[in-house]
Amino acid sequence: MTSEDWKHYPQTWYAITLDNYLKKGNILSGQLGGLAYVVYRDHAGSLHAMDAFCPHMGAHLQSGKVSESGIVCGLHGCTVEPDRPLSSSTHTPCNLKNRAWFCVARFGLIWLHPPVADGVMPPLPFASLPENNLIWTHATRRIHADWRAMICNGFDIAHMKTVHQREVIGEPQFTVLPENALRMDYQTRVLPKGGWSSRVMQKLSGGRIVLSHTCCGSAICVNSQVGAFNTVGIFALLPQNSPDTPPELRHTQAFAAIAVPKTVKWAKLQLYLARCLYLAFLRKDFDVVEKMRMRLDGVNDVGVRAIAAFQATLPEIDGGTSI
Ligand code: FES
Ligand SMILES: [Fe+2]
Fold it and tell me: What is the per-residue burial (b if ≥16 Cβ within 10 Å, else e) of 14-33?
C-alpha cells in the first residue's frame, strides 16, 4: 500500500464552516476536488448548495443575491436554484437550475457532499450520535499539513507514546460500520511526563482511558471515557489545495466540535475542561504533522494500516464539467 491509494478528495461529507458563520442571506463559495460550489442560507434560515457557475453565461454566483427561490445572478439577473427532485419552479429562460449538492447542519458545523450519480443522499456522518442530548463548543484553525497525515495520526498507535505519553493497553479492535466508516476501539494508560494535560488526565482517569475513534471520510469522531467523564470530539478536515500540490506544502482547515452530555453535573464546566484537554492534545499532533510528506509503504503500525486500507476503498469525487 502506498499513500497514492489514499485519494486527496474522496467522495464524502466535508465540514466547510461553523454553522453560525453563515448568516441568513449570505453565500459561501469554495471547491472540492476541482468542483466549485456555492452554499447559501435563505431568508427563512434553510441551507442550500449547488454548482458555482451560472448556467446562462458562467458568472460565479458568489457575486449574486439570495432571493426567495435561489440566487439572483449578479451578471444578468437570472434566478438560479439547486436542481433537486422536489424543485418547485419551472425552467424558463431566466429561471435556471444548477446541479444541487447535499448540505446539512450537524454538530454546529455545515457539511457538504458533492453530487452523486444516483442522486440519493449518502448516509450522514456520525448519524448515531445523539446530537441534541449533548452541549457543544467549537474551534477552527488552519494547519500547514496534509489532511491525510492528520487523519492517519488519529489512528497511529505508535505515536501515542512519543507524542502523547500514553501507553496502549492490549490490541485495538477495528470495525467497518454500515455507513461506510471505520471505528477503532482501544484503551490507554497515561504515562508521566506529559505536561499539565497528562497530569489532569491521569487524575481523572484513575489510570485507564477507553476510546473509540470513528473515521468517516475526512472527519474523525472520538468518544472518550475518562473515569466518570464521557466526552465526544469531532475533528473535521477541509483540504485547501489542489491535488497536485506537494504534501508538505498543503494546508488544511480543521474544525473541532467538542461535547459532553447535557445531563451531567456542572455540564458547562465539564465542557470547558474537555475543550482544554482536547485542544492541548491536538496541539501536540499539529506540531508533528506540519509539513509532513506522508509515506505508507512498509509501515507496519496496525492503526495506520487499517485507516490507509479503509481510505483506499473510498472513490474519488467525480470530476464534473463545471470547472
Ligand atoms: S451569467 Fe448569470 S444571468 Fe447571465
Ligand atoms: Fe495524536
Answer: bbbbbbeebeeeebbebebb
Per-residue model confidence (pLDDT) at position 94? 85
Residues 34 and 135 in one domain: no
| Closest ligand to the CA of 80 | 1
Please choose, from the candidates 194, 100, 160, 179, the residue with its C-alpha nearest in 3D space to the C-alpha of residue 304.
160
Name the amino acid, one letter, at 254.
A
Q: What is the pLDDT of residues 45-104, one digit of tens each?
A: 999 999 999 999 999 999 999 999 899 999 999 999 998 665 555 556 688 999 999 999
Alpha-carbon distance 6 to 10, whole Å? 8
247 lies in which domain range?
Answer: 131-312
125 within a domain of the structure (yes/no): no
CATH number of the CATH domain containing 160: 3.90.380.10
| pLDDT mean by block of 10 residues, the chain; 323 residues | 78 97 97 94 97 96 95 96 68 83 97 92 94 96 96 95 90 94 94 71 77 97 90 96 87 97 94 93 93 92 96 84 35
- Give the residue from 308, 317, 314 showing the smallest Cα distance to 243: 317
Residues 169 and 300 in one domain: yes
Question: Are 138 and 271 spatial neighbours (Cβ–Cβ below 8 Å)?
Answer: no
Residue 53 and residue 144 in one domain: no
Q: What is the reported pLDDT for 208?
A: 84
Which H or E run includes 50? strand 47-51
Burial pattern 50-65, b for ≥16 Cβ within 10 A else e, equals bbbbbbeeebbbeebe
- pTM of the entire predicted model: 0.92
**Could you tell me the distance, in angstroms and rounded to a whole number, from the CA of residue 66 to the centre of ligand 1?**
14
Lining residues, ligand 1, CB within 6 Å? 54, 56-57, 59, 73, 75-76, 78
CA distance readout (Å), 300 to 100, 162, 166, 254, 285: 42, 17, 19, 27, 20
pLDDT at 320: 46
CATH number reported for the structural domain that contains residue 22 in this entry:
2.102.10.10
**Distance from the CA of 81 to the center of ligand 1, in angstroms?**
13
